[in-house]
Amino acid sequence: MPTSSTPRILIIEDARDIAHLLQLHLREAEYEVETAFDGASGIEKALANRYDLVVLDLMLPGVDGLEICRRLRATPHYTLILMVTAKDSELDRVLGLEMGADDYLTKPFSIRELLARVKALLRRNAALNAPDEEADGDCPSAHSDKIVAGELEIELSKRKVSLGKEEVNLTAKEFDLLHQFACHPGRVYTRAQLLDNVWGLGFEGYEHTVNSHINRLRGKIEKDPAHPQYLLTVWGVGYKFRDGD
Predict the structure, then answer these.
(1) 8-128: which CATH topology?
(2) How far apart are the C-alpha atoms of 133 and 183, rounded to whole Å?
(3) With contact defined as beta carbons under 8 Å apart, do 54 and 39 qualify?
(4) Across the strands, what pairs with 84?
(5) What is this structure's pTM?
(6) What is the mean pLDDT of residues 151-166?
(7) Is the pLDDT of residue 88 over 90?
(8) What are the boundaries of each domain within the chain?
(9) pLDDT one-digit tens code per residue, 165-182
(10) Which of these CATH numbers, 1.20.1730.10, 3.10.310.30, 3.40.50.2000, 1.10.10.10, describes 132-241?
(11) pLDDT at position 55
């Protein structure tokens, strides 16, 4: 039976057979799961209740998934979003990620992959929201819950990033990625290591996910993304955060 600590998941999917199948397997995995079958009822439920994660189909009648994603990111409470997209809707996936979705699945997908993605998102989110003393112990570069590199300032507990005097709006996964790099300046990460450390297990073969997130993150924190100062490419290996000042 669900408890107060059981993750709550909302499925917004207009194909009822798919929604019920996902609900069945997520409940078997001991999550508390609710469903909505159109965009209007989905956003109403999502805004009226506290969920840990929303499994969101982008192609919905009425209010579409992109609008739901945008409205959820406008609220103060952060809810993880796992998008579900059609195979040929690459533009929608990019727009969804830009609006703040944390990850995506392309139809058709296996239940096993869905469960792996859900578990990885929830596990990583729980680790990042652990008590401050645990987070500090895991981040040797942090001083008083803060990392400063040049004009870039990262407040770990608030998950807040500033560049100079301007606040930088990052998605949850972009923050997770920056957090991983900034905690270990100078350390070189391969794409596979980043997938494991930031996305969790079950993401083998998705190196392009790292590339796209690196590019979007550079676009937000670098004055000139073509000549980055913070997220540096180590050719033939991977990426690193600039060495400490």
Answers:
(1) Rossmann fold (3.40.50)
(2) 14
(3) no
(4) 57, 105
(5) 0.63
(6) 89
(7) no
(8) 8-128, 132-241
(9) 899 988 878 888 999 999
(10) 1.10.10.10
(11) 96
